[in-house]
Amino acid sequence: MTTSVRQGTPTEKAPEPVLGTELIPKERYTSKEYMELEWERMWTKVWNMAGRESDIPNVGDYFTTELGPESLLIVREAEDKVRAFYNVCPHRGNQIRNPGMGHAESFQCAYHFFEFNLDGSKKFVPDEDTFTQGVPQETALVEVPCDTWGGFVWFNMNPDAEPLLEFLHPVNEHLDPYHMDEYAIVQDLTVEWDTNWKASVDAFNEVYHVQGIHPQLLESLDDIHVQIDLYERHNRYLVPFGLVSPRYPNQKEITQPLREFMVAAGIDPDTFEGGMGDVRPAMQAATKKSAAAQGLDVSELNDDQLSDDYHYYIFPSLTFNTNALNFLFFRQRPHPTDPNKMFFDMQTYVRIPPGVDHPPRPIHAQYKHGEISIGLVMDQDSYNLPRVQKGMNSRAYPGLLINYRERRIRHMHKVLDNYLEGPDR
Ligand code: FES
Ligand SMILES: [Fe+2]
């Protein structure tokens, strides 16, 4: 287990890197060759999130995590040791476990009963003497670097991976004040989308599309005064919530969504005496009060964090929409073979006061695009993304024309370039 020093989340604007203005070639989103390059040089070299540490509280608990063509087996081998293995038997290649979670004293492969200890080492091989070449002692599950941070388990398919916290820096320090290890998962679903994983990342890394795709959000957030900070690999933007957009025609109106925010924060909108501009500070004060009433310590968070979306993107595909008392987590996973498809994981977490039992863990559910509603805003994004992918495949479309407000997209591509061709390779 690794820890880092807690300070408040910095609010300073990071210096702007020079990112250029060229078109981003559309082949990055549509070509199989590019997808394979990403797999070889990026996905297998970065720290990936495997899942929640609280899903494996006891020694012998395990879950699998699926990423592109690979499946990994995450195991609590000892009270303080979590390990990650490729989910494949070294005998004839059978998968050791089906996708999901469970508990094991040891891992027996169902095909010919090779058996492995929780540390991945060989435990038993039936009819071992019939392997005339001998079964080497090192016949074992293949292990990869694994660590924990924020209540999550992480793995890296690069045996020479840098330490997890070095990879996460500075986002781990920014997020530590939320105490994410104290949150419980209350929603857990995956939707298969007909789009490239990066088109989905892009859709959440700019608010330029709010006016087009989510016009109702203009009634409750400021899509113009958004601070963007681009770090070495990761980035963030800070989106003010609890006020109307400068694009919204009536700057004085306490809109219905603002009234709903007030109710959620414990304010009665019917007796509220302030104007539109007073809603956000009132929400912040009320959230502080309700956190204290629940026994939640939010003293490490600044006032803006009590109302706004401090929206963190960890390269290549993790998003934390943070809030003082809950966060909405997104993860984009590439499809094993098709650059036009991906898996979108969406999870909601709520902060639980110390000493209070966590609610029962929801069962993970997986859907195809359009099978269920995942909320109005997300439905609007998911309706749009397959159309974007189809358009990108058009002969008429050369690549992404990116404006300054969309520069997190350009930054992501720069970081990707570093893995594919540059210093991180
Ligand atoms: S493939 Fe696993 S024991 Fe044969
Ligand atoms: Fe959106």
Account of the 3D structure:
With 425 residues, this protein is of the alpha+beta class. It folds into 2 domains: 1-45 and 181-425, Alpha-Beta Complex (Naphthalene 1,2-dioxygenase Alpha Subunit, Chain A, domain 1); 47-157, Rieske [2Fe-2S] iron-sulphur domain (Rieske Iron-sulfur Protein), CATH 2.102.10.10. The protein is built from 10 helices and 21 strands. The strands form 5 sheets. The chain has an 8-stranded mixed β-sheet with strand order 14-15-16-17-18-19-13-20. A 5-stranded antiparallel β-sheet has the order 6-3-4-5-10, with no helix packed on it. Strand 8 (115-116) and strand 9 form a beta hairpin. It is globular. The two termini are 27 Å apart. Bound molecules: FE2/S2 (inorganic) cluster and fe (ii) ion (FE2). Residues 89, 91-92, 94, 109, 111-114 line the site of FE2/S2 (inorganic) cluster. FE2/S2 (inorganic) cluster binds at residues 89, 91-92, 94, 109, 111-114.
* Low-confidence parts: 1-6
* Continuous helix count: 10
Give the CATH architecture of the largest domain: Alpha-Beta Complex
Largest sheet: 8 strands, mixed
Compute the number of strand runs. Answer: 21
Bound molecules: FE2/S2 (inorganic) cluster, fe (ii) ion
Could you tell me how far the N terminus lies from the C terminus, measured between alpha carbons in angstroms? 27 Å
- Molecular shape: globular
Strand order of the largest sheet: 14-15-16-17-18-19-13-20
CATH superfamily of the largest domain: Naphthalene 1,2-dioxygenase Alpha Subunit, Chain A, domain 1
For this structure, the CATH topology of the largest domain is Naphthalene 1,2-dioxygenase Alpha Subunit, Chain A, domain 1
What is the CATH first-level class name of the largest domain?
Answer: Alpha Beta
What is the helix content?
10-25%
Radius of gyration, CA atoms, in whole angstroms: 23 Å
Question: What is the count of distinct domains?
Answer: 2
